Amino acid sequence: MSQIAKLLPGFNCGECGHRSCRDFAATLVDVNGLERCPILKQDRFSGRAEKIAELLAAQSEQVEIIGVLDGLHADFTLGPLPGEPSCREDLHPFNAKADLKDGEVLRYRPLGCPITHFARILRYEQGIATVHLVGPVHLINGSLMPRDIGICMVVAFEGVICKGKRPDVGETVRFLPQHCMMQKVHSGVVVHSEGARLRIEAIDLKVW
Ligand code: SF4
Prior knowledge:
Elements: H1 3-7, H2 21-27, H3 48-61, E1 65-66, E2 73-74, E3 76-79, E4 88-93, E5 105-110, E6 117-125, E7 128-133, E8 147-164, E9 172-177, E10 186-194, E11 197-204
Parallel strand pairs: 3-9, 5-8
Antiparallel strand pairs: 1-2, 3-8, 4-7, 4-8, 5-6, 6-7, 8-11, 9-10, 10-11
The structure holds iron/sulfur cluster.
Iron/sulfur cluster (SF4) binds next to helix 2.
């Protein structure tokens, strides 16, 4: 039995959607998946989730991450913060007169990317819109009327590392945003790190 399976409760109760703890262990790819085991939250199992997280992190460091479009190697994949639909992007519109509002849905094309994106604004401050991706277009609810703001500079990403190694602050990294429709490797500089949570700025599609 794997080390991870041994750390699970061993109840084989099926609450997680699997017939046994061992089957569940085989499907775990990141720590967020542990949410599916309610038993692990009981006090008697305290500390187990942290140990499993360490084992998963060690496993994921050995995983090879390669962009589909460019075949480049990435250091890690970046997924959403807990409870969010995609990792966050910070956009700077080239239209200086764009007066954006929180909650608005935008249509834009990131500079250097051939794909039109659709995103909802979480916050608009100092000319920067922090958004979650809500498209491609066929996934958008018909009642939403996206506002077209043309080409935007994507200046930052924020999310959690799902697979791969954790970088240090100040490091130039190659990463694969999980929501990227082309699965293209991006590069940038880590400016904040808190556990698996990262903020990466100076985003570039010409990979460094
Ligand atoms: S919910 Fe937890 S205890 Fe129950 S089978 Fe799944 S992993 Fe095991």
